[in-house]
Amino acid sequence: MLRILRPVIARLLAPLGRGLARVGLTPNTVTFLGTTGVVASALYFYPRGELLAGTLMITVFALFDMVDGAVARASDAESRWGAFLDSTLDRLADAAILSGLILWFTGGGDSLSLAAITLFCLVTGFGVSYVKARAEALGANCDVGIAERTERLIVLLTAVGLNELGVPHALPVGLVGLALISAITIAQRLIETRARLTEPRQAADSS
C-alpha cells in the first residue's frame, strides 16, 4: 500500500544517501548495521519487558532499511547481490522482533494467547515473503497485497508503542490486525500467482 510513496521517500532520502556515500559507507554496510541494531534491540529489550525502549531503538535502526537504497543510488552501487542481502537480512530482523515479543509473552508478560498470535504473525510474515520470492523465481510478477513488510512493521511497532503509552488493548488489537493482514496478503499473492502461472496454459489450450 505504501509503494506509491516510494518515489517521494527516495527523493527525501537522496541528500542523506549522498552524504553517507561521501564518507565512505557502502549500501551493504548500512544494511548490516541496521539489521544488527534491530536484532540486538529486539532480543535485548523485548524479553526484559522494556517494550517502549525496544520499540524506539528498533524504529531508529529500521530506518536504515530505507537509507541503504539511497546510498546505493548515490554511489551507483545498486546490485543484485545487495538486493538479495537486504531482503535476507530483513527476514532476520523481522524474526528477531517477533521472537523478542514471544519470549516476553511466554516469560514475564505471562500471556500464552498473545505468544500464539505473535507466532502466527511470524509464520505468516515469512509466508508473505516466500510466496512472492517463489512466484518471481517462476517468472510471475507478484507485487500485490495489502501489507508488505513496511506496512506490517508499522502496525507492529505502533501497537507496541501505544500499548506502552497506556492505550488500552493496543497490543492485542494490533497483533490480531497484523495476523489478519498477513494472512490476507498471502491469499492475495497466491491468487495472483495462480492466475499468472496458469494463464499461458489456458491460452495455449484454447488455441
UniProtKB/TrEMBL annotation:
Enzyme class: transferase
InterPro entries named in the record: CDP-OH_P_trans, CDP-OH_PTrfase_TM_dom, CDP_ALCOHOL_P_TRANSF_CS, PIP_synthase_PgsA1
Transmembrane segments: 20-45, 51-71
Cofactor(s) essential for the protein: Mg(2+)
Catalyzed reactions: a CDP-1,2-diacyl-sn-glycerol + 1D-myo-inositol 3-phosphate = a 1,2-diacyl-sn-glycero-3-phospho-(1D-myo-inositol-3-phosphate) + CMP + H(+); 1,2-di-(9Z-octadecenoyl)-sn-glycero-3-cytidine-5'-diphosphate + 1D-myo-inositol 3-phosphate = 1,2-di-(9Z-octadecenoyl)-sn-glycero-3-phospho-(1D-myo-inositol-3-phosphate) + CMP + H(+)
Gene Ontology CC terms, in alphabetical order: plasma membrane
Residues holding Mg(2+) 1: D65, D68, D86
Cofactor comment: Contains a di-nuclear catalytic Mg(2+) center.
Top-rank lineage group of the source organism: Bacteria
Pathway, per record: Lipid metabolism; Phospholipid metabolism; phosphatidylinositol phosphate biosynthesis
Molecular functions per Gene Ontology: magnesium ion binding; phosphotransferase activity, for other substituted phosphate groups
Record flagged with keyword Lipid biosynthesis: yes
Active-site feature positions: D90 (proton acceptor)
Membrane-topology annotation of the record: Multi-pass membrane protein
EC number(s) from the headed UniProt entry: 2.7.8.-
Job of this protein: Catalyzes the conjugation of the 1'-hydroxyl group of D-myo-inositol-3-phosphate (also named L-myo-inositol-1-phosphate) with a lipid tail of cytidine diphosphate diacylglycerol (CDP-DAG), forming phosphatidylinositol phosphate (PIP) and CMP. PIP is a precursor of phosphatidylinositol (PI) which is an essential lipid required for cell wall formation.
Family: Belongs to the CDP-alcohol phosphatidyltransferase class-I family.
Quaternary structure and partners: Homodimer.
Protein name (Swiss-Prot/TrEMBL): Phosphatidylinositol phosphate synthase
Source species: Murinocardiopsis flavida
